[in-house]
Amino acid sequence: MASNKHFSTSRSNLSNNSDVPEQGRPPVPSSVTFARRTSSGRYVSYSRDDLDSELGSAEFMNYTVHIPPTPDNQPMDPSISQKVEEQYVSNSMFTGGFNSATRAHLMDKVIETETNHPQMAGAKGSSCAIPGCDAKVMSDGRGQDLLPCECDFKICRDCFVDAVKTGGGICPGCKEPYKNTDLTDQADDNGQQRLQGLGGNGAKMERRLSLMKSTNKSALMRSQTGDFDHNRWLFETNGTYGYGNAFWTKDGNFGSGKDGDGDGMEPQDLMSKPWRPLTRKLKIPAAIISPYRLLILIRIVVLALFLSWRIQHQNQDAIWLWGMSVVCELWFALSWLLDQLPKLCPINRATDLQVLKEKFEMPTPSNPTGKSDLPGLDIFVSTADPEKEPPLVTCNTILSILAADYPVEKLSCYVSDDGGALLTFEAMAEAASFANIWVPFCRKHVIEPRNPDSYFSLKRDPYKNKVKSDFVKDRRRVKREYDEFKVRINSLPDSIRRRSDAYHAREEIKAMKMQRQNRDDEPLEPVKIPKATWMADGTHWPGTWLTSASDHAKGDHAGIIQVMLKPPSDEPLHGVSEGFLDLTDVDIRLPLLVYVSREKRPGYDHNKKAGAMNALVRASAIMSNGPFILNLDCDHYIYNSEAMREGMCFMMDRGGDRLCYVQFPQRFEGIDPSDRYANHNTVFFDVNMRALDGLMGPVYVGTGCLFRRIALYGFDPPRSKEHTPGCCSCCFPRRKNKNRIPEENRALRMGDYDDEEMNLSLVPKKFGNSTFLIDSIPVAEFQGRPLADHPSIKNGRPPGALTIPRELLDATTVAEAIAVISCWYEDKTEWGSRIGWIYGSVTEDVVTGYRMHNRGWKSVYCVTKRDAFRGTAPINLTDRLHQVLRWATGSVEIFFSRNNALLASSKMKILQRIAYLNVGIYPFTSIFLIVYCFLPALSLFSGQFIVQTLNVTFLVYLLIISITLCLLALLEIKWSGITLEEWWRNEQFWLIGGTSAHLAAVLQGLLKVVAGVEISFTLTTKSGGDDVDDEFADLYMLKWTSLMIPPITIIMVNLIAIAVGFSRTIYSVIPQWSKLIGGVFFSFWVLAHLYPFAKGLMGRRGRTPTIVYVWSGLVAITISLLWVAINPPAGNTEIGGSFSFP
């Protein structure tokens, strides 16, 4: 049984290095201890004292690892100790949090089934044959046993070191001397020699250093002085470049030439090569965009003339009806203008993946081996409730990420489980185990899509374009394995429950035995033991238990980090022909996969999804520090395996360092063919977002977005222009700083600091007290720069700078990650207010993107030929309305907050500001829309109309406005690629949502602002994809919600009004047909838009549910009563005769 390991460190001393050490207090060393209890009862321990280094006169900070000589742990090579520690770190679950020690629990196994992949946590392997030691035998990158003696005696690393160091190099098995005691060469051929070449003890922290040598300066302030040109320094200094660092060669030669012959890249080499961009703009043809803009102008003029005419020509017979209609029409004109103006400059974009490969993955003088020079990428997957977000859906998303076409050593996947559920944890472990088969299969046969559930559900021919003879056999085997995988995932809830019940019964029996032993003849009281949830290795789950208890509830549990798949080796690792699949020429490495569940405690505001994302930002900065972050919802999987490369084309292109994020469109599966409730939302994603791309960029929509980490940290973009001060600048001009750093050389800068250096004492107040996190910021900034392969590229990095392998994981690093996901870490910092995802709104995505645009960053919309990502959307009417309610509520919150676009900075373009203003204003249209939907009924009931008479002027205005609207729609369809049906569905649901969810959102928003009532919204249910008779069964489910009341009322009132209007006109002595036609026309306009809503109330298609008879009866009774109540006029000249209600 595994035992727990403790970190005896305080939260303020988890970091290795600090630029500002506490005054009067020496650094407290952190101790990391691993222990395993063997079958004989002896503890085999591996210990390391991590001593804090102080920044002295040395040019670099030193990182020293001391391993005290003990009987169980003899001194060994530092690089070997790091590999040993990484092995145990990757097999340990780290937990900790507020007022609790950080523990590393060594996992014998993570799931019930056997795991074989060498990177997998809890991977099975041979045990050491030394008596009293059950540690794992040394293994290579493929997980094969490494046996140093020809007698094949199985021995672990530590016992082997003992035999070499203290046993005279004699094999404990055959008693013969070892022929080869060079453990480094045997243990790992992938990167070990390179690791030693980096300098032993100092290698880890040297890679954390900035580019510039600095003394007594924080890594944040590594920007150059005003007279230093960093871009020239890239070529004029002699050095080789590492993973975000400069390593100075001993011989002074530049580049990687074997004999110092200057094979490095020279400026003239760059000038002689034709430079090719990674992206290009595709402008809309003038034959489409010019008429489109002209029609917008014409419609604006016609609307102005029409509204002016309406104001001047009042309807004296029904001034109240005229007044309400004019007010509504004025608001509709303003709303249309806010929506239409940002569409003046739509553009399309294209990428060139071949150029990206040539620049970053082909041999060059600066990268002779052709290793990938692409920057690191951290992918975040967020989930909160395994009951509403099925684990199988999340597992398929994770598998599509692990199989993505991106350099394996540069890719990391972090899964945030905000519910802390063991079900999610074990499902993720099962996915990591199945990835051992799925990922090599995808790479071998170039599978698309790389979500196994979607791939095996394809209706097209799966054998098309497959040329390898063993594809059919491989596919059949993998399909069988996936079916078994699904069964294991679906059975996990019952398996966990049965296991927990069995362990609980065992604990009760033990407690009763102890009670009997302690009390001989006394009456025994019932034993009460908390019903815990147990993991596969027979220990308590540190997260949320099935039966909630103290420290184990959804809002009260420790932080958890488990490395499911440890970082891969630096070099490709090809499989073998033996076994399940023939993987002879296939790279079998898997990306880093980490399970994260942040700490939650009562009394803390955890800020929902935004808080979870910020916890992942900090944890990933400590563990992998990818300069780019891709966030995905648990139900949005990678449909195009090259999607990340397409996004990276924009980030690595000229001017890409000023991009804060690349937004991909959302595409959905499982939508009914008619898209009844406009779930695809194509008008927004293909019209509005393309149009915003021509301004400062699209808004952030919550998922499928590739972020620049530095932009999330709240820094200004490089080369941000100075903007004109306020209106008082003529009287109080801003004093110029003569020593100001040129903008192109200012890499890290926040808007509050225009001086040469930021105040170092304020850095912890912004980012927290983790110096690991602070030290990672400049490294991420440097790694995210474009290649300096052209004179016009400013703020670039040298080619080949990112080809050195990433650091090995150690216990201190993971312990620091535990610290930064604790509930107290964000206290008195700027996380959530300026840094990371922004708090205070249920639509944190829009606010986060707005803050970046407000600082001057730009974004890009990347529409790929093959959809980049696909997800699920609620097709049930109730779920869809609740989803729209959530979005609209967030928009109302934005309008009443400081994130209102009216308060935007001068760095934001006027049209971009109008677009964000429309985001906050559109829910208020519901007030006027509901009034306008009742106007036709009021007109028919009263016998009046919104105008005095239907004269020619009114009809001409109405005709021109309608025709221009239709022509604009046709041109939008032309340049965006959507269909007319999609446009019409969007118009229909605009009215459905506007008369239901948007109105409720306005009321909730006003309640929160005025009365302080908090808003709660329903988590959107994700479909589990189970086999059912009808895949669109959810579409016909009728779940009642109060949001349905206003649309139902509008439908019924308009139907009754049409009946009343016809009856009134028919029995009138002087029929007012013009007013009837006007009222009926607008009533039918309202009913046509509400048709999908009415159809949703009818239930399943092809059947006649009871509700149809109920509604038919109500309508028939209503019309009958109206008919009886209408008395034919007898010489009465009044309109409607003697009409009266009974």
Automatic annotation (TrEMBL):
Keyword Membrane: yes
Recorded GO MF terms: cellulose synthase (UDP-forming) activity; mannan synthase activity
Chain residues that bind Mn(2+): 609, 633
The UniProt record lists the keyword Membrane: yes
Family per record: Belongs to the glycosyltransferase 2 family. Plant cellulose synthase-like D subfamily.
Compositionally biased region (Polar residues): 1-20
Cellular component terms per the entry's GO annotation: Golgi membrane
Keywords associated with the record: Cell wall biogenesis/degradation, Glycosyltransferase, Golgi apparatus, Membrane, Transferase, Transmembrane, Transmembrane helix
Residues annotated as transmembrane: 286-307, 319-338, 915-938, 950-971, 1048-1070, 1076-1094, 1106-1126
Active site: 418, 845
Compartment(s): Golgi apparatus membrane
Membrane topology: Multi-pass membrane protein
Region (Disordered): 1-35
The name this protein goes by in its record: Cellulose synthase-like protein D3
Pfam family, one: Cellulose_synt
Record-linked InterPro entries: Cellulose_synth, Nucleotide-diphossugar_trans, Znf_RING/FYVE/PHD
